[in-house]
Request: fold
Amino acid sequence: MKIVNLTPHALNLITDARSVTIPPSGTVARVSVTRETVGAIEVDGVSIPVNHTVYGAVEGLPTPAPDTVYVVSALVAQAVPGRDDVLIVDDLVRDDQGRVVGARALAKV
Reply:
């Protein structure tokens, strides 16, 4: 099975036996975003915009290929619910400062 990493970060997949690192492919799958300011709230004298955000088409996701899965962000995976070849990282491993250092599994959304 071929794993194509469509995120901007290396994926460190960690199992009990060993780990494997999947480098970024150079292509990042993204969901297009349209924002419209619909108001504002004030916090400590600072005006913070409130937007209406609409997610659109997925960009950078190849068509399905035999024996290939694509690892993407959760947002991208949610935008293509019918794609069995699209996975996200799951069961994250964090260091003692709370930073993500890897994942124990992949998951379907």
